[in-house]
Amino acid sequence: MNASAPAPGAPGAPSAPQPHAGPRHDSSAGPRITVVVLTRNHVRQTVDTVARLTALPERPHVIVADNGSSDSTVGLLASLFPQVRIVQCLGDRGMAGFNRAVTLAPTEYVACCDDSTWFAPGALACATLWLDEHPQVGVLNARVVGHDEREIHPACLMLNATSPGDDDLPGPALASYMPGACIFRTAVFRALGGYEERLSHGGAEELAALDVLAAGHAIVYCESALAHREPLYRWLTRAQHCTHARNAAWVAWMRLPMRDALAATGRALVVFARQRSLGPAGFALFRGAFWTWRRRRVAPAHVVLLLRQVRRAERLVRAGIPAMAEKYDRAGQRAW
Questions:
Q1: Neighbouring-strand partners of residue 321
Q2: Distance between CA 211 and CA 254 in Å, rounded?
Q3: Domain 32-229 in CATH: superfamily?
Q4: Which of 51, 115, 280, 332 keeps 20 to 30 A from 153, CA to CA?
């Protein structure tokens, strides 16, 4: 376990597996986890990230999912890291770029990250042990920090602050996760069919999280699974704001009760109006109504209840901690 992880029994820290507990893994049998790195036209960041991942003591399989890079990413990776498998897409498929790479993962577990995120030494071994000991957990969300570990990613702060406790789980229960810093059971991801391509630039992970929970699996925040992330100062464009709001409404129409779907639609229209794109974005939203209705499958009541609890807690946190709320709103997972 990484030395920066909170000590077992500390206030607010989940109890870590003891060294003598859980199944033993013979390292001679090969890696039990694969890391999939999603990238597009970030050659320097990708090379640095893959170098760190291939140097991990766990020796994971590494697969790079390239979303149609037009720079030297693919050629340079192939020459520098011949042991790394590269899966190329013809264009930018967003989050759906993970799909084919995960189907090729030869291991029981798969860690997903982007080209600016890498796992700390020992983090993947800890995550593997947690998943071994808690078969009801389908996804672990890593704790994401900067280079010096002094600043925790604001999305992690929000997840940890708004997650209801559950004595049967090894950490705080989540209603969503960070797709660029998570560890899946490979079978769970494949059973989902991967990320929905029409939501791949915002909202695909929300739909996947609801389907994971509906299938009876838990999503858990894991403090001991430590990941580092380079700061990215990139603000969302007007179109991206509208796309995220539209996709959130589509997810609600596909999986949530009518009152939640109507509320999500109302929130989307407010965002469109603020971004001065009410006409075009509103038309795009309602044009997808038939597509979402055909895929409508309302999540079980306990999943809807968990989601409502988390959203209520988010509103309280944002109201009580304006500075963090502002940072999360402006940055979130995409700009830190």
A1: none
A2: 11
A3: Spore Coat Polysaccharide Biosynthesis Protein SpsA; Chain A (3.90.550.10)
A4: 51
